[in-house]
Structure of N-acetyl-gamma-glutamyl-phosphate reductase:
Amino acid sequence: MDIAIIGASGYAGGDLMRLITLHPHTDLTCATSRKLDGTPVSLDQPHLKGFVDITYTNPDVNDIDADVVFLAVPHTVAMQYAGSLHERGIKTVDLSADYRLPQGIYEEIYGVTHTAYFDAPYGLPELHRDAIKKASFIANPGCFPTGAILAAAPVADLAQTIIYDSKTGVSGAGDTVSETTHYPNVADNINPYKWTAHRHLSEMQLEISRLESRASVHFTPHLVPVTRGILTTAHILTERPVTKDEIQMRYRHMYRDEPFIRLQTPKLASVRGTNFCDIAFEVEDGGRRIVAVSVIDNLMKGAAGQAVQNMNIICGFDETEGLLFPAAAP
Amino acid sequence: MDIAIIGASGYAGGDLMRLITLHPHTDLTCATSRKLDGTPVSLDQPHLKGFVDITYTNPDVNDIDADVVFLAVPHTVAMQYAGSLHERGIKTVDLSADYRLPQGIYEEIYGVTHTAYFDAPYGLPELHRDAIKKASFIANPGCFPTGAILAAAPVADLAQTIIYDSKTGVSGAGDTVSETTHYPNVADNINPYKWTAHRHLSEMQLEISRLESRASVHFTPHLVPVTRGILTTAHILTERPVTKDEIQMRYRHMYRDEPFIRLQTPKLASVRGTNFCDIAFEVEDGGRRIVAVSVIDNLMKGAAGQAVQNMNIICGFDETEGLLFPAAAP
Amino acid sequence: MDIAIIGASGYAGGDLMRLITLHPHTDLTCATSRKLDGTPVSLDQPHLKGFVDITYTNPDVNDIDADVVFLAVPHTVAMQYAGSLHERGIKTVDLSADYRLPQGIYEEIYGVTHTAYFDAPYGLPELHRDAIKKASFIANPGCFPTGAILAAAPVADLAQTIIYDSKTGVSGAGDTVSETTHYPNVADNINPYKWTAHRHLSEMQLEISRLESRASVHFTPHLVPVTRGILTTAHILTERPVTKDEIQMRYRHMYRDEPFIRLQTPKLASVRGTNFCDIAFEVEDGGRRIVAVSVIDNLMKGAAGQAVQNMNIICGFDETEGLLFPAAAP
Amino acid sequence: MDIAIIGASGYAGGDLMRLITLHPHTDLTCATSRKLDGTPVSLDQPHLKGFVDITYTNPDVNDIDADVVFLAVPHTVAMQYAGSLHERGIKTVDLSADYRLPQGIYEEIYGVTHTAYFDAPYGLPELHRDAIKKASFIANPGCFPTGAILAAAPVADLAQTIIYDSKTGVSGAGDTVSETTHYPNVADNINPYKWTAHRHLSEMQLEISRLESRASVHFTPHLVPVTRGILTTAHILTERPVTKDEIQMRYRHMYRDEPFIRLQTPKLASVRGTNFCDIAFEVEDGGRRIVAVSVIDNLMKGAAGQAVQNMNIICGFDETEGLLFPAAAP
């Protein structure tokens, strides 16, 4: 199958290209970049030398032809491509935020008018596999929501309050330089940001509410001196005292057959470069607080990996095709 | 004044020696180490070469003579020294946990029998300055409790629930090697530990309760790839809706005259190597959650710096003597 | 083919297990560890959960049965296994130093008596592919020599002096904790060690001399705050002035058909987790100094990856089988 | 004495301000910044809150009035200020490259015309103390040359070839964001740059030649994932075999009375935030190579610290005034 990646020169684009070269049924035929139009991909991303030998292009949206398209562009840019792709029935996984929320919420949170809205399933296969299977356009979840929702999903209906305290690596900020990503500002530091109002909070609230939960959901992200990975600590206050055993049963039950979720001590090194989400939890004495912790690679299960997982589902491949490899640890 | 440091070869000991060399009224006459008895200090801690020219010794407790003694040894070891020093009326600042808690709580939390218990003020000058002034033996607070308590103190009586999510540098684990501190296990990683039951939680609960608070207090620490520094994110659920203005007034009021507390964006680099605690807060929309963040250098305001601050108070020096210098940032 | 890994619990062992799970023709049937005998591999190395489901064992050497054995144990331990494996004709790749040097040099450099010496080809395929093909026991090169020799090989016969200044990640020190690898001693630091007398120097000198070079070879390694990777800066003083063009021709010619050598700007991120060695060079004005720089992943092309490459050769597989995947960058 | 810092908002400017607050005889009266004109210094550099309470200004050069001026601006900008200051006899320490080299060499290396040239002593007190004492305008050395020259000076006349392989922290690149300093490009990486032609090489060559040396001098810098500090490995090939004893005598003799040079194992942590340069060496078997290693803080002995040291000399203060404090290690 021919694959096109729109916005291939960013970090998520780079990991998509890496995954496409590892996938047995796909062929990368188009990698677009506005700023690098005409540059060989492997000059820009030398780790792909020997694997990707095409050149960045910058085609008109209607000239993009492929069996599957990945939109790895920022929000508001994705919607400029989505309409045409959707109409032409081209299978698409959108890594931006443009189709993750109902239109009204989206417009309020992102402060823009949506010019090409339609419904698309939220591409978290662990919660929405059936809806994804039937669709051809998937809204790939945000990196923070992926780890946060998976950490609390098995106990969401027990929760009164969920406070997500997330720690993210710097690659989440993309490959564009800024004060925020200037090495001396990051190294030996921990930077909380958007302490109470990060845009990803809406995705978390929406998904948690869909799990029959009445919990109030809060979220504070922190930038940490790590390149890849998000560790989310979910502080969950429960409506009634719980026991470790019943909580364990819930996690095991929900994730029993999930190929990318492993219930074990969460370490970033265990998931780096892979599509896994490792989760563990503890119950505080008295049973009124659960601390659940998840780790993901923000560029993989938090972006490119989950996008390929969604592609596998909508294309009828085995869901794990091209994604089942362990991390290189340490 | 002559100063003795018991347990000088550790990280807190090293910073105490650094501070004593900077202090105009003190002279380091004794630095003890069991394992390095006979070794010149500057061979062990080369950054002190040219400043500390004495040799580690290992004297009997009753032979320790000084105007002020710092106990920079682990809990249970400190109590072996404390009795003699206390009886002989030697001014002492104990950096261990041995005198921070009422005896019963201490013995339960630390799982040991206290063999030399007496009351000592909790050496957090911002809350207990008057008690410290009258004492000669001070229980220097734990590193986590220092940052955590200061972050929430101004609003403790408004809180229903306080969840401390702390991120600490590796020097907090001391200079003893372990799996936990093995570089490949720390770098590019975030490690939560003692998710619900860290011993420092008791200090936090006790101090918060002393602030006329009925809040339930929780604490989850994380090891981050940073050498020095603790950033504590205090997620505070309030009993009633609050406004940003009233909260701001409370922080300003409580810390108005505090020489080591600065209300500004918390960055580890701003406090590294210094005795400052920088604090800021945000109020979540609706006023039911306050996110307060504090940063300290765990070896300074979290250990050696606060110990010297306490020494200044009990010796009648200006409280800031030898401690008023800015960080070298970045 | 059945694979046994002796000493599987270390970092090189971990990467060997990862590679065996990725290889289409191999099956891991035995992973030994003295200290973890009886422990499931995936409890010790959680990144392998779902991929390796066997348990560490500690069999007698004569009971080890497999088509290929990897010796991932320290020097002097490898020779305890090698004799039996060699006699029984079991294909073996030895990652230790025990068979890399002629017996006399080995005994002098390592200060021990070799109790089971025999000749084995030096497993650097780029230089000794033919000899490796004919052998069944291969001495896998050291991590530093691999990067160093490959950096200078094309110009070794032009060199008067080669000074290797290498920068290595901490995983090269293994998974055993020590002062050297204690996080606060590594982070924000650069530590030269064995400034003039690292044991790997002998391998470099021997291999460079085999390239018809009369150069004197020197080597100073540095530990840097990186987990994986070695960057070697080869400062090459030439016997006569050279031009950039002739040097470029030499590099291109020698490495034209090498599947794991790429002539491009060396970045650790481009080779991390992979078997690639990326090399570039510059000629100093006047043509009397060449600066050649190579990067490898010390656990891959510097250990496990090259070992699998050697296994492929001695087993008659395609040399790149199971090893052709790009790095996850950044 | 009143101090003005031109270009105070950069990293060197920040450290100059820190040092001025620690100095007993100086008062910061002017801190200029073009882009931050009107901003309180402590808003921009929060670590200085409570120590520096002035606001950045942007005065005309002729309106700058102070007893001492520090020029912490880029090369070519410094010369726009130097003429006026020099004519008006205002004591000045220039941290840029504009007055470090003879005019002809400067213009060739930097590719610009010097519009306000005059002779100024090279401000390396260990080599040029007498010349500095008599001057009022000092050319503060580059960060790399400082560490490199001090490492080899005692044996320069014995050297045939000196190859400097330097490893520098990222703060040396300044506070301006770029691809080079983007966290994911630096972390877990080692980046050689200007492999054979860094501009600082000229300073090294000039100073080494002034030490009666005929050595050819080469220099390759590397960016390492460290914020502050330069470690320089000097690979020195000698004209004749040397012994460890004679070399030791030379280092001890030359640096016997130097207040900021310590002959001990070089660790970045030992000098971080301070004006010290720690140096050690080894002689290779056979005596034909010396490996000398120096560490400095690039912003201190490599910039602001040395500038204050020079200020002390030209103002007649004790040379160590305000600079004698130990590092906070680890």
